[in-house]
Amino acid sequence: MNIQLVPLHYVYLAFIVLIIAVMVRRRDTTIICVAGIMTIGFLATETLSGSVSGIFSSFIYAAKELLSTIFIISIIVAMSRVLIRTGINEVMVKPLTRFIHSPQVAYWGIGFIMMIVSLFFWPSPAVALVGAVLLPVAVRVGLPPIGAAIAMNLFGHGIALSGDYIIQGAPKLTADAAGLPVTSVMTASIPLVIVMGTVSTVTAFWMLRKEMKSGSHVKLSDPISGEAVTVLPPSSDSAPISEEPAVQRQSMPARLQKAFALIIPLLFLVDVILMFLLNLQGGDATALIGGTAVLILIAVSLAAHRHTGPEETTNYLIEGFQFGFKVFGPVIPIAAFFYLGDAAITELFNNPLPAGSHGIVNDLGVALAGLVPLNNTVGAITMTVTGAVTGMDGSGFSGISLVGSIASMFAGSADSAPVLTSLGQIAAIWVGGGTLIPWALIPAAAICGVSPFELARRNLKPVLLGLTVTTIVAIFLI
């Protein structure tokens, strides 16, 4: 499989290195990404006007790709704010406090619940369901929102999505490309997913616990109410303390509060049942949750505000969308650049790549695979690196077919092919599916009210350590 690399590939790679370097220094990358888009646009169109217009076009492309995520986050936040202001959320989560009574239980509880829900419905709708219900409880018992976001990320977008044992979208793509039965890839991936998940989640928890035990208070901004709060170390019995005046409460009869507190979880439970019965996945599942959240918002607003209910409903929606676009604003320029590594460059710049190209990122992955000798040890390392590179577009799924085909080239025997295929699949999805690429992990970051870049930074060491150990295990399994 020979791929011709052109200047576009090298320029894109150079800007990736530059962006990563800037991120490591914790500086903003917007200007670098815009410069990268302009440079690629100029190379693709050979005109200054095409280069400049490509900036806006790429922003529009990124916004369209992210729009469904922006909407579900905005609507969930709008719904959550009306629940907070009416006190319904306190009544709704009170029973859970009996079980989630410490930061440790909150971290592992949120993680395992997220993993189970994600296995059936994929992580995007699972984030909205789990975050809206369990985040307030977790914060109340002392787990910082960044800890909840890490748990949802690693268990949902990491463990559940990389195995994908129920929906089987990922293993089918890689198995078909490698010419293997789906069951063989899924079977081979089980020990690797277990190792990857165990190492990454335990490492992340150890780092989080060490930070919380240091005695320093973790300051944060509640994602729903907007209040500044301080989460005390787990040794303290105190609940989060508000440093700002409490949000304005809207009075509601206790009986009505209890009724909504019962009905709302039941409605989301019905959503889960419908997803299962109607086989709703991905965008369809997210749409069902979003529509339910809008109906809840309307019902609670009318019940709480009565005559001004219609106007207040609109105000809550405005607050939600303000929050959503504020969170996504800095991400769109970065996502716009990285989308050029996949299908966007063909759509925006009239296919400037050579014939046979699979996109800039995938071409780079194939070129990397062609530079190393064919043996099992080097093959396993190469599959991990190749999978990670193909995941850098933030999709996780766009490059796994390529990973499957490369794995078939490196496989020295029929037994090693499924292991290499599943290893590349795990690397691609863990990197690109929503644990390391900031614009891919926005749902969890937005629901928890934390920076996606900070979340990516916190995930970096656990995920890299997990990939290293998983690669070593794969070498012994081959």
Automatic annotation (TrEMBL):
Q: Does the keyword Metal-binding apply?
A: no
Keyword Iron annotated: no
Q: Which residues cross the membrane?
A: 6-24, 31-60, 66-84, 105-121, 188-208, 259-279, 285-304, 316-340, 360-385, 397-414, 426-448, 460-477
Query: Which keywords appear in this protein's UniProt record, sorted alphabetically?
Result: Membrane, Transmembrane, Transmembrane helix
Q: What is this protein called?
A: Transporter
